[in-house]
Amino acid sequence: MANDRDRTAPDNEHEPLQKLLSILASPWTLLLLHRLHIEGPKRFGELRRRLGRISTKTLTERLRLLESEGLVTRHYEPTVPPQVTYSLTEKVLELDGVMIELDRIAERWYGKGGRK
Fold this sequence. Notes:
There is one protein chain. The protein is α+β, with helices and mostly antiparallel strands. It is 55% helix and 12% strand. The longest helix has 15 residues, at 96-110. The chain is globular, with a radius of gyration of 18 Å. Residues 15-114 form the HTH hxlR-type domain. Keywords: DNA-binding, Transcription, Transcription regulation.
């Protein structure tokens, strides 16, 4: 009977991984983190141009999410117009090996010019 109870009990063991994957798997998030990782701190407009077809709304949402999760910092300069720069935190640098390996796999699978 104990086994039946174990099978129906919620599995909280994977909760931290589920949370991390739900953040990273949202559209544009990994590419955004990758750009900041490879190219360093960027202003909003620069990020938007470097990411291609991302909408202003989506980029804003992703940056807010990443900031709330402690993965990105937002540096505000009260100039006219205001300058806001985004950069990675030390926390997200733990993903360094993962991002490098994903980059290698993408190159092998798809190359620089697209699909092989």
